Amino acid sequence: MTTPRIKTVLNDTNPLTEVTVKGWVRSFRSNRFIALNDGSCLENLQCVIDFESFEEGLLKKISTGAALEVSGTLQESQGKGQRVEVQAKEVIVLGEADPETYPIQPKKHSLEFLRANAHLRVRTNTFSAVMRLRSALSFAVHQYFRKEGFNYVHTPIITGSDAEGAGEMFRVSTLDPKAPPLTASGTVDHSEDFFGKETNLTVSGQLEAETYAMALGKVYTFGPTFRAENSNTSRHLAEFWMIEPEMAFYDLDANMDVAEDFIKNVLSYVLEHCEEDLLFLEKRLLDEEKQKPQNQRSEMPLIEKLRFVVDQNFVRLSYTEAIEILQNSTPNKKKKFKYPITGWGADLQSEHERYLVEQHFKCPVILFDYPADIKAFYMRLNEDKKTVRAMDILFPGIGEIVGGSQREERLDVLEARMQAMGVDEKELWWYKDLRKYGSAVHSGFGLGFERLVLFASGMGNIRDVIPFPRTPQNAEF
Ligand code: 4AD
Ligand code: MG
What's this model's pTM, rounded to 2 decimal places? Predict the structure, then answer.
């Protein structure tokens, strides 16, 4: 038999109904008050027991973390802090949790400690709120694209190509690492490997998504992505989820419009549907901010910040204009940047992106038309032959949240770019075919899902917005 979820029970307006609920003990006070949580919402259901009518042996088993089935009468609460409570008649301990060893006690644990206990951390308020928010955001993603007429495509996880050309890939092989077959010249003979060639985990589904956009018109991917970059930062994961829409007949301006509208839409969705969790996360953030020096505190409470992004037009600015602003900025002149901006052509670091967003414009910024040399081979070359139709969206506290572009649809220009950048043309024969048969203007972008959850939850570290983070030296669980 299924029992109602606590969220439903808490909203029940018929007092004196008999209910049976199941959940885990968050705390047990005075041998009388059990705070029960089943993950359906942040709030616990208070179950009150008359300890004199319960056996001592049973009471001992009711401890934080234990799984219980509680039956009793739902009534208006006598105490403060909750509207209703259950006057328990029967408590069945479904699974005990030894208080001597159970790590998640009803007190404040550090995020580091909880990371080491990632299999249990979702039993805390913070992580259950973040993970419900993550779930709601991913639902909002699908809902948005469905409403806008996109088709969801599943691009391969194992590929032979390096879409971003950055060489930061995890190899996939079934060859014996100790004694791989060798070619006559002494290199590993991948023709004997599982796929008969070198393969790796995908760094982006874009190239394959393009093939589908050139038939279905508007598509998106939403799947796991892998990068073996050794960046041990609070913004990078080795395994993350990326959302990549791709649209035929869209130029860069139309692409920026979609990206901005999409982000605003999914944030509006959680503002509307996740109020309880957002209020909790906002309070958590305020408490955390109090520990920081005044000048490092964020200016806006979480919900206000999300509303601000939803209501604001993002600033659109060319890379060239951004470089001028950065070159003349106070931190650049005072040599405060770790990577000083000396002139046009420099790759922007996160410190520069955050200066533009947090200090200069105080608003999300879309930068476009980057130097061709610092961007991927597939981006459309501008008339000036120096810049490409790239765009990055920069967010406060996050830096880059979206990277996208109009794609090079002219075969000759694409081939020249591939050659200049050392991209394996043979491997990408099928990608070139798109430019031979029915080629057309098209565009797309990639949004790092965890960076979106990071922004929406106000958490400070990307490891705390994915259930089981994969980072250098860490693949536990
Ligand atoms: O800017 P990137 O590398 O763009 C692409 O991969 C394109 N193929 C996307 C496209 O046009 N279809 O990555 C896109 C986004 C970044 O803006 C960032 O939000 C996220 O993916 N990202 C990461 N998130 C977490 N950990 C990492 N290591 C990330 N690398 C990129
Ligand atoms: Mg990028």
Answer: 0.96
Q: Spell out which residues line ligand 1, taking CB within 6 angstroms.
A: 163-164, 204, 206, 227, 229, 236-237, 240, 242, 244, 400-405, 444-448, 450-451
Terminal C-alpha separation, the chain: 32
Domains of the chain from N-terminus onward = 6-102 (2.40.50.140), 123-168+203-464 (3.30.930.10)
**For residue 237, which atom of ligand 1 is closest to its CA?**
26
Rounded Cα distance, 327 and 281, in Å: 37
| d(C-alpha 429, C-alpha 423), whole Å | 11
Q: For the chain, what's the residue count?
A: 477
Closest atom of ligand 1 to CA, residue 236: 26
Nearest alpha-carbon partner for 288 in 459, 43, 464, 125: 459
Q: Which of 214, 216, 273, 158 has the alpha carbon at shortest distance from 409?
A: 214
The residue type of 342 is T
Give the atom of ligand 1 at the shortest distance from the alpha carbon of 452: 19
Q: Give residues with Cβ within 8 angstroms of 421, minimum separation 6.
A: 165, 377
Residue bearing tokens 């080491």:
116
Residue with CA at minimum distance from ligand 1 atom 2: 403
What is the CA(301)–ligand 1 centre distance, in A? 27
- Adjacent-strand bridge partners of 367: 317, 392
Strands 199-201 and 158-159: antiparallel
CA of 209 to the centre of ligand 1 (A): 15
Nearest CA, atom 23, ligand 1: 448
What token pair was written down for 265?
Answer: 């839409």
pLDDT in tens, the chain (477 residues): 789 999 999 998 877 789 999 999 999 999 999 999 999 999 999 999 998 888 889 999 999 999 999 999 999 998 888 899 999 999 999 999 999 999 999 899 999 999 999 999 999 999 999 999 999 999 999 999 999 999 999 999 999 988 787 779 999 999 999 999 999 999 999 999 999 999 999 999 999 999 999 999 999 999 999 999 888 899 999 999 999 999 999 999 999 999 999 999 999 999 999 999 999 999 999 999 898 888 777 778 999 999 999 999 999 999 999 999 999 999 999 999 999 999 999 999 999 999 999 999 999 999 999 999 999 999 999 999 999 999 999 999 999 999 999 999 999 999 999 999 999 999 999 999 999 999 999 999 999 999 999 999 999 999 999 999 999 999 999
